[in-house]
Specification:
The chain has helices at 39-42, 56-66, 85-91, 101-110, 113-116, 130-140, 159-180; strands at residues 2-7, 15-19, 22-27, 70-75, 78-84, 121-124, 144-149, 152-158. The protein is of the alpha/beta class. The protein has one domain (2-180): CBS-domain. It has a 4-stranded mixed beta sheet with strand order 2-3-1-6, with no helix packed on it. Strands 4-5 form a two-stranded antiparallel ribbon. Strands 7-8 form a two-stranded antiparallel sheet. β2 (15-19) and β3 form a beta hairpin. The longest helix is centred in the C-terminal third of the chain and has 22 residues, at 159-180. The N and C termini lie far apart (50 Å).
Length: 182
């Protein structure tokens, strides 16, 4: 099940509705200072994904190879879950195991992503205001959100992307203050 932040212009109501089996969290956009940064302005567009049938070992290898901490789980082009580095670490065998390396790797190939993923995914659309995505991540204590158009994953926004946006905003503000003399 995917929960998606959806903008409903001209409304300050907040609620849930179902659109073709996808639950959409409706929010009204807020504009601060006349300009709203959108998720599409800061999201990572080249998303590394995994399928539910792939192994725990494959998930761990992809995360390590690409230096990422979360993988959207996609089946037939549709977002069906997310697996994080924490999920992988919790499912991984302890270093104190009595298993041989060969036995351990065999077992890790048998554990499938669908067994460790989070199936109830929070997601946002590219048009979602960046502050709404940040608020959602803060309130839910999550480090990243898949970005979807319909059911297709088109990007991902992470806490690192939000910090980069904050640095840019604060840096621009300091430049303006220095120019104005304030």
């Amino acid at each position: 099940m995917v929960w998606c932040l959806h903008l409903r212009h001209g409304s300050d109501r907040q609620g849930l509705r179902s659109v073709q089996g996808t639950h959409v969290l409706q929010q009204s956009p807020r504009v601060a200072g006349g300009m709203t940064m959108r998720v599409q302005d800061k999201m990572i567009r080249s998303v590394i994904t995994i399928t539910p049938e792939q192994s725990l070992r494959m998930a761990q290898e992809r995360m390590r190879k690409h230096s990422i901490r979360r993988l959207p789980v996609v089946q037939k082009g549709k977002l069906v879950g997310i697996v994080t580095d924490r999920d992988v670490r919790q499912a991984w065998a302890s270093p104190a195991t009595a298993l041989s390396t060969h036995e351990l790797l065999y077992l890790l190939e048998r554990v499938k992503v669908e067994e460790i993923m989070t199936p109830r995914v929070l997601a946002v659309s590219p048009e979602t205001p960046l502050f709404e995505a940040a608020r959602l991540m803060h309130d839910r204590k999550i480090g990243g959100l898949p970005v979807v158009e319909g059911e297709e994953v088109v990007g991902i926004i992470t806490e690192t992307d939000l910090l980069q946006a904050l640095i840019e905003i604060l840096g621009a503000r300091e430049e303006v203050q220095a120019t104005v003399g304030g």
